[in-house]
Structures are given as structure tokens and as C-alpha cells.
Amino acid sequence: MPKSSPCAFPWSSLWLAYLATLVVQSVLSSSYSSSSTYQRSAADGKRPGFMERTLVLLDVNTRSPIRVLNDNFLSLQLDPSIIKDGWLDFLSSKRLVTLARGLSPAFLRFGGKRTDFLQFNNQKNLAKFRGPGPDYYLKNYEDDIVRSDIALDKQKGCKLANHPDIMLELQREKAATTQLVLLKEQLSNIYSNITITARSLDKLYNFADCAGLHLILGLNALHRNPDNSWNTSSTLSLLKYGAGKKYNISWELGNEPNAYRSMVGRAVNSTQLAQDHTKLRTLLQSVRYYHRAHLYGPNAGRPRKNAILLLDGFMKNAGSVVDAVTWQHYYMDGRVNKVEDFLKTRLLDTLTEQINKVTKVVNTHSPGKKVWLGGLGPAWAGGINNLSDTYAAGFLWVNALGMAAVQGIDVVLRHSFFDYGYTHLVDQNFSPLPDYWFSLVYKRLVGPRVLAVRVAGLQRKPQPGRVIRDKLQIYAHCTSYYNHNYVRGSITIYIINLHRSRKKIKLAGTLRNNIVHQYLLQPYGTDGLRAKYVQLNGEKLLMVDNETFPELKPKTLRAGRTIAMPPMTIGFYVIKNINAYACRR
């Protein structure tokens, strides 16, 4: 669980009194219990009294937040590979737009490994820029896409489509072929160029706009002049087109510049990277519509030695040029194949270590500069089938949101909303995966104001040389102001129980004697932690239709009732009408 905030924490004497009362009551109950009860406990090898209760006492500082995050804290990413495998043509799907809208407000970052292989071509359509498909259906398939585009062009406002099942089936077949090529590129670290046409940008912006997402578009930083300076010709053409269409877009340049040498055999040092971002800022200011557009960067990779050195040099020379500093974190290798790996607290803790490294560099050069996790996923190299797309991956995802929030990361962009591989929120049947449902509940219940948590309970004594890591992760925020089912002043607590046993949590201090709404998310079906379906308070979560979400019904816990967390589950708990001062403003 996250450590207590170093800031002064005004716990009242009521907390200590309450804890003392419970201990005294437990001792008294042990003393006055019948001898048979006491002997049974001793015979079972259990310690009587307080230990038998296995209670965890939980209180929250409701006076003031320790962090205030961006309203778009939980945001999304799309990989440019969707241009190559053809899924870009299906972003107008009503179901896909509905699912994205469920996670708004949010940023939508269009970027990834293939950002630095994008080339803009200001042409409206043309099948020659589409990826190949099996010959026996290519002509009819392309004709269907063109007819769909023509029909969409006739719509005003949001351009939405209901694609026939046969068309989606052909697309899935085409994508499966293309994705083998994409995976081979990723594993070999050799990438081919991707053309983004004017039509492609139109479809991408239509998706973001209809879903209530703000588009952040990644630009190719490897388009270089002979002297290794950044070539801006393609970018200028794209900016002019976007400005002409009045597309409200923010920008970033490149992706993981610390890895360029291994990708293309050409390095871009921190000085050159800073100059490139300064040049992009100047370019944005020269296009009137984008003269106040936001710029984010440098999108450094996982903060190991080379990435940290690059980030340090970049911040020294161009820290003031970007509106927020971005970097990426992925937990594990895509070749991992055990559920147990997703339950290791040591793995969960790696994010804290990486955040500390990045924020130390940023605060050295630009104190107070916002830091974003510009790409976060459970695994790299496309993820792991039947693991990173199952309930088990939710432990990493939800804990990452809590840990990033406590440590002041302003925005977390999830890789990826929808594309190839096994780290996405929505699969290729447009069905939400477990991490989508976790994200939806998070968006509905968790606000940007982060509160300090205090936990008390009996723990095992650490053995010499051994670190005891708590497998009960607890975070608290003010309840989302967008949720009109709860008045301002309500608090949302979310708990991750990685123990293989049930844990009881007693709300103490200001939290006690309040009605609690429980949103307990558990795997559905016989696959256990490998399940791809989730149940909320015992009800399986499924979309009602292409435009309707299931009702997220809470279970009401009476005031003073102990919260019982089943083993290896995730739960959200709203403390109603507590009128917390930190959450009223």
C-alpha cells in the first residue's frame, strides 16, 4: 500500500481513542468469553482476541487533498498501426464511439512505436494507401469501405456507422494477416513507413470529437535532414490541413527517443531533441490556429540510465518549451505466461521507483512542471494472450492509477484503447475487456482530488533481511463531480486485495457511521483470474446494445458495517454524505 504522505497530517485524538477502544474491547471479550470458546480457539492454534478479528482500521484525512490532478487523469492511447491493419476505417462504429465516450473526458494520444514512421499525404482517399488484404475479397472489401466513406460524408456533426457483420468479419481476417507482419516488425525492431492521409486524419478526429476526447497527435521525429536536424516539411503540411479544418489538436514529437539507435541506427542526443521541440513550438506559433496549441514531450522510455540522461539534458535545454513532461512505463516482458506474475507486490512497486527517478530530474530543472505517464501498459511487445487481457491484469492497472495519483502524476495514458495485441481495453469484436470495466467504474466514481489514507492493523513481524510488502492496496479520492448520484463532499475509496484470503476493513474516525455504496468487481466464469468477463456485485457486466451501458448498481452497506474484501479482488466504496471539507470546493 502507498506510504503516508510526508506532509503534516492532522489526525485527531479521536483516531487514537478509537483504536484504543477496539483493543480494550478485544481484550475484554477475550477475558469474558466462556472457557469452551477460549479452549476451542487455543485448540485450533489461533490467537484469541483482536488477532482473531483480522481487522484493518481505515481512516482518511478529509480536511485537504494531498494532490489535485487533471480532470482527464485517466486517458487513452491509439497506436498508428490501426492505419496499417485497417481498423482506422472502423472508428466510426457506434459501439466503439460509445465505449470511448464512456471514458470521457480524456485525452486521446495517437502515438506509439510507429509514430516515427508516419508520413502525412494531403490526399483525401485512395485505396493504394490501404493495407493489403486477401485477394479473393480485396476488391469488394475496398468498395465497401469507399461506399461507407461516402455515406459518412453526407452526415452532419458526428459521423457514425453500423458496419455489417460480414464487413467486420472480413476486416478481422485482414487484420489478423497484417498483425503478424506488425508483430514481426516489433520483435525485429525494423519498421516500415505508414502513410497518414487527409482522409485518415478526418476519421481519427471524428472519432475523438464524437467521443468527447481531446486528440494529441504524435509527429515523426525521425524525418531528418542530412545534418541530422529535424525535417519539418511533412509536419507543416499536416498543420496547415488541420488548421484549415479547425481541428483542435495538441501535439507531441517522437516516441521513446532514447531507443532510436537500436531502431534505426541513428541517435538523437538531448541537445538535438531540445532543438527539435523548440523548432516545433516555433512552427506551431507560425500557424495562427495552433499558435496556442499544447506541446508535450519528450516521451522518454522507461527511466533507465540512457533515458534518464536524455531526459536530464532535454529538461536543461527545453524544459520550458513543453506544457508537460511525458515518459512511458510497461511492467513486464510480453513473454511472461504466469498469472502469479501479475500479483507480485514487487512488480507493483516498480512504478513508484520509476516515478521518483523522473520527478527528481524534472524538479531539478523545472520545479512544479506537470509530469504525465505518456504510455502505460501491463506488458510490452504486444502483451500476453489470455493474461494481459484478463482480470489478472487489472491489479496492475488499478494500482498504477492509485500510485500515480498519490505521487502527483497529472495524466496517465493507457496503452491502448483498441488495436492489435493483448494490452487493449476493447477487443476486435468491440467487446469491453476487464480493464475497460475497471476504467469505467474509476471514471464514474473517482475524482481528481487525492486524499491521504491512514491504515492501522496487526502485521507479521518482518524476518531479518526480508521485506514485508502489504498486499492490501488502499487509495482515496473525492468522488467524481461528474457523478450526479453523489453530492459534493462524498469520498471514494478503492481497494486491491492481493491476499489469498478475505480481509475485513473497519472504517474509523470521520468515516465511521456513514452509509457506504459498494462496487465490488470480481472475475466472472470458471476461468478465475484469467476471466475476460467481470461481475459487479454479482451481476455480469455486458453492453445492453451498441449505445447503452449496463447500469452500475451499488450494494448498500449499512452505517458501521465492516467491509469484507474477498481474496484477489478489486472494490470501489463510496462514503455517502460525509460532507468532507476537502471535497466540497
From TrEMBL:
Keyword Signal: yes
Pfam families linked: Glyco_hydro_79n
Record key words, sorted: Signal
Signal peptide residues on this chain, from the entry's feature table: 1-29
PANTHER family cross-referenced by the UniProt entry: HEPARANASE, INACTIVE HEPARANASE-2
Family (UniProt): Belongs to the glycosyl hydrolase 79 family.
Record's protein name: Inactive heparanase-2
Organism annotation: Pagothenia borchgrevinki
